[in-house]
Structure formats: structure tokens, C-alpha cells
Design goal:
Blueprint (H helix, E strand, L loop, with lengths): L5 E5 L4 H12 L5 E4 L7 H6 L8 E4 L2 E4 L1 H11 L12 H27 L2 H27 L12 H7 L2 H11 L10 H11 L11 H11 L6
Parallel strand pairs: 1-2
Antiparallel strand pairs: 1-3, 3-4
Helix pairs in contact: 1-3, 4-5, 4-6, 4-7, 7-9
Length: 227
């Protein structure tokens, strides 16, 4: 089954689509990238994900797998003998990785996105304060999880690295738009160093969007784009 054809339905700018692409790169699994057009949904997408009707979808042979973090776990289990293990081997470490990945999606990313939606300086300050508070928690989480190693997962990129790192392109765009450094070397030195190492990893570099290109794309999404 592991040798069946692999395809990803997605869009280049989506941080959630980046997750399975990075995981497949880590496992050295070749795949075809099926690019969705912004603002529309292909018949293949609707057929493959009839419940949520959204990207990403992994097509492994004729079987679809949906939801980005679930896809990453599926990739790790299906190609367990290829490349490094993505999920931690220790059950507690695995639970912590899943906990913080959920926190990033449900709390941290929501606050980051709200920066670009903020109306006026006061609202922007409030949202930035929420992001900085979340960053402080993630800085501690990194130091606890990494145990002095370069990544959340230790010596190499893992589940939580992928979950958080997939947002770094949009984080840079948000920093430009807000005129504010969100991952600050003084306040979050460990995360700042981690972010640089993550973006330069061979599994990440080919799929990490270029900041200027992503910033132009962002103008199509937000009704009131900030330069």
C-alpha cells in the first residue's frame, strides 16, 4: 500500500497544505501536487472531502485522507520505515505534541490572523498582546519539548515543528503588515532560532512561500490590506 500513487490536493499559500508536503518531503515520498484555484473548489476536492469540502486532502491510491494534522500522522505511520519518525516515540511526548499543535491552531493562529483584521491601533495592540502572551507559552513549550535540541522534536523536524512552522510564512507577512516583530529575539530567543533553522531545512525550503509573493496574495484575501 505504501507504494501506491500519492497526490496532495491543495494550494501553495495554505499553511495547512504545507504540513503534509513537509511530512512527505521528510519521508522522501514522491507525490503529485494538485493545485486548487483560489475562490473555487474542484470536483475532485468536493468528491474527496465531501464533509468539510476543504484542503488539504491526501490521495493515497484511491483513498482520501483529510485534515492536515491527521494527514501528517497518516504519513508517519504509513511510511514508518522511511526517513525520521515525525511523532515522538514516547507516549507523553506524543500527547504534548498533539496538545500544543491543537493550541496553535485554535488559539495562536486565530490571534495572529486577527492582527490583520484589527480596526485601529487600540484593537491591534490588544491582539498583539494576545499573540505575545501565546508566544511566551510556546517559548516555554519549545524549551520543555526540545530538551536543548534544535527542534521541538529533538534533533530533527517532527509533528509539532510542522504544526507551528507551517505558519511562519504568514507570520512574516503579518509582521510586515503590522510593523511589529512578532517572534522577537529578545522575548523569544529559542523560537526565533528555531524558526530560522526550520525554514532552512531541506524538507521545508521548497514549499515555504516567499514573503513578498505571499504578501501580494494576502491582498486578495483581506478587504483592507495593509502595505
Amino acid at each position: 500500500m505504501a507504494n501506491d500513487e500519492v497526490k496532495i490536493i491543495g494550494a501553495w499559500a495554505s499553511p495547512f497544505v504545507m504540513r503534509p508536503r513537509i511530512a512527505l518531503n521528510l519521508k522522501s515520498v514522491p507525490y503529485e501536487f494538485l493545485q486548487e484555484t483560489f475562490g473555487s473548489k474542484s470536483e475532485l476536492l468536493l468528491k474527496s472531502n465531501p464533509v468539510h469540502k476543504k484542503i488539504p486532502v491526501l490521495l493515497h491510491g484511491d483513498k482520501p485522507v483529510c485534515e492536515s494534522n491527521i494527514i501528517v500522522e497518516y504519513i508517519d505511520e504509513t511510511w514508518s520505515s522511511s526517513g525520521p519518525s515525525i511523532l515522538p516515540s514516547n507516549p507523553y511526548d506524543r500527547a504534548m505534541a498533539r496538545f500544543w499543535a491543537a493550541y496553535i491552531d485554535e488559539k495562536w493562529f486565530v490571534a495572529l490572523r486577527d492582527i490583520l483584521k484589527a480596526e485601529g491601533e487600540e484593537e491591534k495592540k490588544e491582539v498583539l498582546a494576545k499573540v505575545e502572551e501565546a508566544n511566551a507559552l510556546l517559548e516555554k513549550a519549545f524549551n520543555d519539548c526540545s530538551k536543548g535540541k534544535p527542534f521541538f522534536n529533538g534533533d530533527h523536524i517532527g509533528y509539532l515543528d510542522i504544526a507551528f512552522g507551517s505558519f511562519l510564512g504568514w507570520l512574516r507577512v503579518t509582521e510586515l503588515a503590522a510593523g511589529h516583530k512578532i517572534l522577537d529575539e529578545t522575548k523569544t530567543p529559542s523560537l526565533s532560532k528555531w524558526a530560522e533553522q526550520f525554514c532552512n531545512d531541506p524538507a521545508v525550503k521548497p514549499v515555504m512561500p516567499e514573503t513578498a509573493t505571499l504578501a501580494e496574495f494576502a491582498k486578495k484575501i483581506f478587504a483592507k490590506p495593509r502595505a
